Predict the structure.
Amino acid sequence: MLNMYVFATALGLASAAAVAAAAVAPTYPPLAVLKAFRLVVQVTERSTSNDFASIHNTYISNIRTGHQGHDLLGQTENADKALTFYLNGTTTAQEYMRVLTESTTSVSSGIRLDPDEGSRTVRTAYLIEGAADVGFSLKHPSENYAFLHPETWAACKEKLPLDKDREVIVFKQAITTTSHMFGTVDQNIPKGCVSVRLLPECANLNDLPKFSSYLPEQITPSHQHVLGSHCYKDVKAIDWSKYGPGP
């Protein structure tokens, strides 16, 4: 009789635990898989970033620098002016993926991260004609949210090299470092910048422009190895308070 009571009690506790677990089970905004996406800026330090509040929910675009085929990544409020990206790779392995954009020219363009002068952890993002960096992805198998890797991304105010009177928002990628001696983690966000996440919003993969058959293969636009990309239908419409835990 005692054993039956213990078993019933244990079963009741297990059932209660299961109900409690179900009650707090995390939920996540739905993801689709398309071949193209825009990148939406989400400011992750909103309480301390009033200077950057206006860029929240804007789109990644490009800023002309005066050097052909070497634009900075910037932002725009207009979705029609946003860059349309796609993941390109001969395999789904993360280390081979490139983030390329639908080019308005006959030359393939993609994201490249160039180290900032004097820094080992901060790199500025450019849109480069020709060879783009590899190693980008939008969602790891263990994650329930989609955002551009590698992290951490930062938005910074800088003046253009050829126009010192014009201040613009540019984007950088900061490499997180860990001090094993002190047990600390540093995201290495540059001073005066704010951390952001770049979320994929679903878009249509457009037809490629006509290009010359004489272009070298490495800069010829191609959709031959386009990969399916996880993306959100409308990032601005997501009520993040309904989901969690957060990314």
The chain has a mean pLDDT of 81. The longest strand covers residues 163-174. Residues 15 and 21 are 10 Å apart (CA to CA). The two ends are 49 Å apart (CA to CA).
